[in-house]
Amino acid sequence: MNVQQLSVFVENKPGHLQNVLQKLGEHDINIITLTIADTSDFGVLRLIVNDPDKAQRVLKENHITSSITDVLAIEIEDKPGSLGRAVEAFSKRNLNIEYMYAYTEKRGDKAVMIFRFDDSKAAAQAVSQEGYRIVNRQNILGEK
């Protein structure tokens, strides 16, 4: 499980999100997928990018707060009920999902979901035992 996510803390004001995206683009950081959660004052932009270490360095140089965390990406069947069955693998082992989001590109007849846990190793073991395929960084970036 070596998918790393970049979390960026963005003030909820016009132009702040654009600034983050512009800085990443200027340094050839490719965004693979993203999600954003916001409150009235700030947002947390979560991204899977081609080079998280470089992205974090660029953001730090521009005084933008960010962090890198490991996330779990798994393939699920792209049909009704599949996500519920995958989540059941975690709940029956008492593993709490902190958040999740979908990877926007299909992998054949499979969808990819990205999860964050406080115990990623236990979560990876849980889905492996249930027969789910864990997607690694190379799979998401299309590397060999």
What is the compact description of this entry?
This protein has 144 residues and is an alpha+beta fold. It has helices at residues 16-26, 52-61, 82-91, 120-129, 137-141, and strands at 3-11, 31-38, 42-49, 66-77, 97-107, 110-117, 134-135. It folds into two domains: 3-69, VC0802-like (2-Layer Sandwich); 72-141, ACT domain (Alpha-Beta Plaits).
Q: What does the average pLDDT come to? A: 87
Q: How much strand content do the residues show?
A: 35-45%
Question: What count of domains describes the coordinates?
Answer: 2
CATH class term of the largest domain? Alpha Beta
Low-confidence stretches: none
Distance between the termini: 16 Å
Q: What is the CATH topology classification name of the largest domain?
A: Alpha-Beta Plaits
Summarize the helix and strand pattern as letters: EHEEHEHEEHEH
List the quaternary state of the chains: single chain
Name the helicity range. Answer: 25-40%
Structural class: alpha+beta
* Tally of alpha and pi helices: 5
Within CATH, the superfamily of the largest domain carries the name ACT domain
Quick one: how many beta strands? 7
Radius of gyration from the alpha-carbon trace, in angstroms: 16 Å
- Shape from CA axes? globular
Largest sheet: 7 strands, antiparallel
Task: Please state the second-level CATH architecture of the largest domain.
Answer: 2-Layer Sandwich
Annotate the secondary structure layout.
Layout: E1 3-11, H1 16-26, E2 31-38, E3 42-49, H2 52-61, E4 66-77, H3 82-91, E5 97-107, E6 110-117, H4 120-129, E7 134-135, H5 137-141
Antiparallel strand pairs: 1-3, 1-4, 2-3, 4-6, 4-7, 5-6
